[in-house]
Specification:
The chain is built from eight helices and no strands. The protein is an all-alpha fold.
Length: about 290
């Protein structure tokens, strides 16, 4: 039975330590990319080890942090009021992620529908076109960079379409698992959640294959002008979110196997499901705007 009192956890070092680990990951990752793409500008090779040290530290901290939270939940310390607070917190977190991706989609829309026509001399911008970039052709995607290098645009009806089908299927399997959780059908819950996790891993493997194909056969890299930058920014950050969601579902799957959830006490499971459905919806927008249109 959960306590009727509002449980206030003791002071924890994990938020501060996790912030430090996240800073190390971001700082090392940024320099890792710069060193890989422009070694003459960023000499040395310390970005890569720093990035992986940050990743390992962050995963370790998250593991310990979740361990403490799980102990609190299993110990009956979480009241209904605390459950409401958790749900509000998760909803605000997802809202912040919506704003995160909105900024990136905004950069894409701004570039495609405002900057490209402006540079192309649309309307009253003919003089701007002649002065800034007289050879510029207003078309999207921009596969020709200012230095004259030509790349290829990523089509929609190959691996991206397969990945879309994978994520849509994963939403269906996770919904079936959710109903199984509420109905107390543990075997079905485990089976369909395991399928969802496998589909998430499959999606990530295909995205790696897509990136390798883009780099080796299409000339589509981070150096491929604004189109390449936006493509890898949007798909890369989405892939990072799929990775987080897959880990989230894997952890809750292990907890399901250990009998931690029931129809009345399942917030952690539902939080993972909310996050996964959010990631799926973002991919639908991304597939239409980045790959299809």
């Amino acid at each position: 039975m959960a306590t009727e009192k509002y449980y206030v956890p003791e002071g924890s070092p994990w938020p501060v330590v996790a912030s430090v680990a996240l800073f190390i990951t971001a700082f090392g990752g940024a320099h890792f990319i710069q060193q890989a793409t422009a070694p003459e500008t960023f000499p040395g090779a310390w970005g890569k080890p720093m990035f992986f040290v940050g990743i390992i530290s962050l995963l370790s901290i998250i593991t310990l942090w979740w361990r403490d939270t799980i102990k609190e939940s299993l110990g009956g310390l979480h009241s209904n009021q605390l459950g409401i607070s958790y749900r509000q917190g998760m909803l605000w977190f997802i809202f912040s992620e919506v704003m995160f991706f909105s900024a990136f989609f905004g950069a894409l829309f701004y570039t495609r529908w405002l900057i490209v026509p402006w540079l192309g001399g649309a309307g009253s911008n003919a003089m701007t076109h002649e002065l800034l970039w007289p050879n510029f052709q207003a078309m999207w995607p921009l596969v020709k960079t200012p230095d004259g290098t030509t790349t290829q645009a990523m089509g929609a009806w190959g691996l991206p379409a397969i990945n879309t089908a994978i994520l849509l299927t994963s939403s269906i399997t996770l919904t079936i698992a959710h109903h199984a959780l509420l109905e107390g059908k543990r075997a079905r819950l485990i089976a369909f959640q395991a399928i969802t996790v496998a589909l998430g891993v499959f999606f990530l493997c295909l995205q790696v294959e897509e990136y390798m194909h883009a780099y080796t056969h299409m000339g589509l890299t981070l150096h491929a002008g604004i189109y390449g930058s936006l493509f890898f920014m949007l798909t890369g950050f989405h892939g990072a979110h799929v990775t987080i969601g897959t880990i989230f579902l894997l952890v809750t799957l292990i907890r399901v196997i250990r009998g931690h959830f029931d129809k009345d006490n399942n917030f952690a499971w539902e939080a993972g499901a909310w996050y996964w459905h959010f990631v799926d919806v973002v991919w639908l927008f991304l597939f239409v705007v980045v790959y299809w249109l």
